[in-house]
Amino acid sequence: MSLWATQVWLGLSIAVIGISMHRTGPAFRRHPFGTPVALLGLAVMLIRVEEPPSPESEVVSAAVDTAFWAIPALLGLSLVLSGAPLYWRSRPLPLLAGWALIAAGWLQYYSTSSPSLADALDAGGSLIGILLSITVFVLCVRTAERMTPQEPETEGLDEKERKYVASVLRRHLEVDDEP
Which end of the chain has fewer CB within 10 Å, C or N? Predict the structure, then answer.
């Protein structure tokens, strides 16, 4: 394996490690080094002095071709997620900008890939299958929620139950003074 082939695979490995690092941690606070490590891996893979040998050059060209449509699509996806209605409050500007970037990514993908009629039919059939499965899932969830009886509202604790809960909490939290 040549030095340049090793560089491509090392960069790809570092990028995958960075993506994995980014996925660790709580949902709203990701690992701070994930994104820089992933970008470093992409830089190691894509910035080279000479052309790598045959299989690795195909990996690099596929990564470059993917970046032209994937970057706008991923930016659009993050804008759509940030602009989606949350607690009945939507942000239409990021939502519209995100959908525009997603559409631009799809247009870029189809302009570079030049799909055939068979590819379009396969994609259409897959899309129909996906929509049917989502529809069945939504109908099942809706039916299950309607068939489940609502629980009656529970009554509050009486004085004896309050004292018992307080004593259990006091024992587990090791609080010595009485209320």
Answer: C
Rounded to 5 degrees, what angle do the CA atoms 16, 17, 18 make?
90
Q: Report the candidate in 77, 69, 127 with the shortest Cα–Cα distance to residue 99.
A: 77
User: Is 43 in contact with 8 (CB distance < 8 Å)?
Assistant: no
pLDDT average, residue stretch 113-126: 79
Helix axes 3-22 and 54-83, enclosed angle (nearest 10): 20
Q: Is 37:14 a contact under the CB 8 Å cutoff?
A: yes
pLDDT score recorded for residue 29: 66
Concatenating the DSSP letter of every residue in 96-121 gives HHHHHHHHHHHHHHHHHH---HHHHH
> Helix (H, G, I), strand (E, B), or coil: what is residue 5?
helix
Minimal CA–CA distance to 84: which of 72, 75, 93?
93
Does residue 119 have a pLDDT over 90?
Answer: no
Q: By the 8 A CB rule, do 22 and 30 touch?
A: yes
For the chain, the residue count is 179
Q: How confident is the model at residue 175 (pLDDT cuts 50, 70, 90)?
A: low
